[in-house]
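Supplementary Note 3. Input sequence used for the single-chain structure prediction.
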Amino acid sequence: MKLIKLALISIVVFTVLLWGITLMFPSNTVISRAANIHGSADSLFKKVKTNEISLTSILAATNSGVSLQAADIPFYEDNLFNALNQSAVPAADTLFFRLSYGGKAIAEGGMAFYQLVPDSATTQVFYVFQTPWYQPLKKMKMMVADKVYGPGLDSALLRLKNKMQ
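The predicted structure, written as discrete structure tokens, is reproduced below.
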């Protein structure tokens, strides 16, 4: 009987300790990739914003049921991006997007264009995932999200690079 009590207490203490540690993990996870693409940042931004180059075809290789909303302002509230946008002069043109499948948002993020050198623009694609503080297992899962979503961002930048050539 003492062994069973000890096992139950150990399980409860270990679970509470693990859950307490996961509270220190961040609620927002940003996954980002960047690449240099030939052209100016302004022309790239205008082509993507005016849908001359389809943002949906860049982000989702197969357009099967994926819908896209794009805007000049972020879709997420009360976060680092909004705080930085209010206090600093933006150094890049950024187009924010939300990908949905079946009416449910599957990814939010943006595409930023930086003109660092005259002949090419550094293009950054990023996803921002927000996890509730009370879901520790989901927060732990987001720690390895780069391996899941990173290759998709790499291929999106490659598709954009190919369309600009």
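The chain is about 40% helix and 30% strand. Residues 26-164 form a domain with the Alpha-D-Glucose-1,6-Bisphosphate; Chain A, domain 4 fold (CATH 3.30.530).
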